[in-house]
Amino acid sequence: MRKISANIEPGCTSDVHRVVELEHLAAVWEPELRFLVLAQTSEDQRRVVGLRSAGLSNVAWLAGAGLQDGDIVVPRGAKSELIVLLRRSDAHHALFMTNRCNSYCLMCSQPPTKEDDSWLIEEALQAIRHLDWAPRVIGLTGGEPLLLRHGLRQILDEVGRRFPETVVEVLTNGRMFSDRAVVKEILTGLHTLVRWLVPLYGHANFLHDFVVQSPGAFDETIAGLLALQEYGQTVQLRSVLIPSVLENLLELSNFVVRNLPFVREWALMGCEPIGFALANREQCEVDLTAWAPALEQTSRTLRTYGVRHVLMNTPLCSLPQSLWPWAHKSISDWKNVYAQECDGCSVRKDCVGLFAWHERGWTPAPLKRIETSEVSL
Fold it and tell me: Pick from 2, 53, 319, 363: most CB atoms within 10 A?
């Protein structure tokens, strides 16, 4: 969540707004939307107040650095800050759906709570309606978005209506799709382009259930994956590379290629060192360089069977060079940093870097500056 300090006009509501330059307001103003007008001088602020006095009740001014025209934000006037929900210039776009979840994964970066946060549905809908640009991909994250049921379907339909070419990526454990009522409620007649990102942590129930700390989760997840196949949905599997997953990665890859041939892609992901991962450090921290043979063999198996795969959250220095072509720059803009060891690295521009909070946790492997002479690809 990106937070930006700003001076916000007193009385501005804590609803979703679109940030707009003062000179652009006349061209983009709509009565159903709310606008925060960038006004850095007292003269410009008086102009905005005058517009509101003249009948434009849905505008307010703000002043501050780091804001961009078109940002979709939620102002927090009491704290003199804005939450930036969506930004056109970001490489990754996502909306947070809920903090509730029915799993308790060992390495969860967003530990779940039980509070009712259904207001996030309306916030997401308003964020989508305030967009004046079409994201190529927009993510819906949690928590577990399937817990929203009809609320999730509302959001999917809204994206599909406004931006028919936008792909929605829903990060879900898929367990609730083992319930046919949920399947029908969310998938029947769904025309929005959706990619379902579903985690799988083992080829046997006791392995997966241990990682997600939920007995019966493996069977529910497999049933959910089969339901997605039945409805012709696109699926990306996800596996976080913690020790218990790496120890059985080859068996898991064989399970995937033999039993889940409809999976479009498999993402192998470095662990984000925050949340439950910090509390469960002994079960989550790993040096990926020690697992290079297993990662290379898994990649060979997937290539043999034509299963597309990507490596995410894995700096290039943590991987053998043979796997670099599958390493993606996957960390969200506001989370992404590079360490001192990265200065002068010959492959930095192609590297994902690190999570901003890695110093409180760990890195996927000891960091190493790679010289041009070391690159053999």
Answer: 319
Single residue among 41, 60, 85 that ends a domain in this structure: 85
- 3-state DSSP helix/strand/coil percent for the chain, to nearest 5? 40, 20, 40
pLDDT at 35: 98
| 3-state SS class at 158 | helix
Report the predicted TM-score, pTM, of the whole model to 2 decimal places. 0.94
Span 156-177, average pLDDT: 99
Q: Clarify whether residues 285 and 256 are in a common domain.
A: yes
- What mean pLDDT comes out for the span 237-257? 98
Burial 212-249 (b: 16+ CB within 10 A, else e): bebeebbebbbbbbebbeeeebbbbbbbbbbebbbebb
Cα(367)–Cα(270) distance, integer angstroms: 14
Instruction: Answer yes or no: do 139 and 234 share one domain.
Output: yes
Q: Which element (helix H / strand E) includes 169?
A: strand 167-171
Q: How many whole angstroms separate alpha carbon 279 and alpha carbon 284?
A: 9
Distance CA 67, CA 84 (A): 9
Of 267, 242, 243, nearest to 253 (Cα)? Answer: 267
Residues 199 and 226: beta-carbon distance below 8 Å: no
103 and 201 share one domain:
yes
> Which pLDDT tens digit goes with each residue over 351-368?
999 999 888 888 999 999
Euclidean distance between CA atoms 2 and 87, whole angstroms: 10
In one-letter notation, the amino acid at residue 303 is R
State the pLDDT at residue 377: 57
* Residue that is last in its domain, among 44, 63, 85: 85
Residues of the domain holding 115: 94-374
